[in-house]
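Need the bound structure for magnesium ion, inputs here:
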Amino acid sequence: MTPLLAIRQLTMDFGGLRALEALDLSIHPAQTVALIGPNGAGKTTLFNCITGIYRPTAGEARLQAADGRSTSLQGLKPNQVTALGICRTFQNIRLFGHMSALENVMIGRHCRTRAGIAGAILRNRRTRDEERQAADDSYRLLTKFGLARHANDPANSLPYGAQRRLEIARAMATEPRLLLLDEPAAGMNAQETQALDRIIVRLREEEGVAILLIEHDMRLVMSLAQRICVVDYGRKIAEGTPAEVRRNPAVIKAYLGEDESMEAHA
Amino acid sequence: MKAEFKKSLLAALWFMFLTFPITVVRVNTIERTVAWRWERLIWIGAATFILSFIWRRLLHRKQTGRREVSAGEVRPPSRWKQMAADPRLKGLALSAAALCFLVIPLLFSWNKTILVTNALIYVVIALGLNIVVGLAGQLVLGYVAFFAVGAYSYALLNYHFAVGFWAALPMGAALAAAFGLLLGFPVLRLRGDYLAIVTLGFGEIIRIVLENWNALSFGPSGIDNIPPPGFFGLALTLRQTHIAIYYLMVALTLLTILVVHRLQHSRIGRSWEALREDETAAQAMGIDTTGAKLSAFALGACWAGMAGVVFAAKQKFINPGNFTIWESILVLCIVVLGGMGSIAGVVLAALVLVILPEALRVFADYRWLLFGALLVLMMVFRPGGLVNARRRAYAFEPSAPEKSERP
Ligand SMILES: Nc1ncnc2c1ncn2[C@@H]1O[C@H](COP(=O)(O)OP(=O)(O)OP(=O)(O)O)[C@@H](O)[C@H]1O
Ligand SMILES: [Mg+2]
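Answer from helper R.:
Posting the output first, comments after.
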């Protein structure tokens, strides 16, 4: 089976700093892959390279498009990458703070709707229908993420955990085939993390979306990921099933320090 | 209360000390005498004390008010909010306002009608700038340039090709929109302060070109004898023409409000607001930020262009002196004071800021000083502007089942 996303020899330099070095990674459709590594390992940088926020210094990422052909993501703008079916959340929440939760999700519908300036001014039948449809779809998504009662509240007034879920809902509104989650459980308590776990499982089962997950919470990673990729100083130091990675001495050394075992950390 | 009293007293004493040399002592070099005007010191002290005390009281009230709100679980919506939410009352208020504007020329003198026409021109310009600054969040300072483009396009098209007013109206709008794109392309990558500075330069460039390119624009002497709009071929007196232009402006204002309102609550308007909130996130969520910015520039500029055409027709004479940086600043003041992104606020602020200085002619010299003070007060006490832009609330059937409401 061809991978949905194939990253080949991706390298990213910031001046003298090599944040990513010749990284290879494949993600298959409907698969959940976790990306772990110590702080500053280059995980977020990888997301930024995939989504077109950064231009990689070398190497490229290819996406298997909806029609089955493989397209390079090289040189695409972030919005073009999103249109192709990759969407992300941000490590430091980046919602549209003064817009309502519903409008945040409706922004996600933007790239799947068409109405232009003329439609907006004339408010013809098609525009109204499309607008209503977008609002309904967005509301359904909010319901799915347990956010319906916040629909009309400004996004920045939501509780922290709700804001994290809203980010995922907004990303899902773009109908991605690959969802990139950057530390979705950061700052959540155990209960909220569990709820997040259930939501992600359901996304996978109902939407069949592939997920690349950056997360420091090992319990969440072990429960969700089918494969784990470990990076340190921009290099991939291990890849495999959770059980394999857990036993890998290089991982234990780099990621957890020499005297701790992964179980103890989790 | 006591602390505020003490602080105000200190401020007053300090201010008296600071202003002592310039207010109290007057040396008459001819008669070689020194006049001591002690009574001035008392006035200054008293005024400083009172102003400082009021200021501190208000600040105090604002802070305690906020604490109460955060302490109480849910705040019942204020009476104002309830009234504003009632669609019937809103409709009533809107029709009352519309009626007021319709009867103004019948009730007031010719001069006052012209003043209101002026104010309406600023309403239209400010609503245009509101798209760029209030909705899309692009701080554009040289906005008056588009007004100038509109005014000069009518004046020149009429002079060279005898283009009539009604044809010039859309042409002026289109030309201004084209200039909006022209400005938009080079500044696509700029944000915040840099954008403000570059657009400020753009506004000045347009004015300086108009002042110096004599062959095109007739330089500082401007263009005279711009014909007023024709209304169904009627022969109108000067007075009637002005009243007709007034009604034309009322219609144009209504059109602007309608179109801007529809744009704001559309897919395009949402993308502008996302751009304002977080450009990176907006692009990552699939919004073509280039297109969104350019459309905001073009659609914002076209209203200034249209207002410019009417302005030229009303004034009969335009020169580059009509389009200085101060006009840009006034329009920006209107948008900020009214509340970024709020149509009602912008309309209100435009009327207030244009009509009030005329009504209070005595203060004409202090106009900018008062604007400055007003803006500072606004920033402290009502940072959202006169009218806070309210978010549209969407209604859904409650039957939609809410799974996992509590995580
Ligand atoms: N725009 C940038 N300019 C310069 N250096 C950068 C930039 N972005 C990231 N870096 C550097 O690249 C390295 C990797 O950063 P990155 O944010 O990808 O780490 P991370 O794995 O996401 O860490 P964390 O777990 O803390 O989020 C860091 O040393 C960081 O300082
Ligand atoms: Mg990171």
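Comments: The first helix of chain A runs from residue 43 to 50. Chain A touches chain B through 60 residues (CB under 8 Å).
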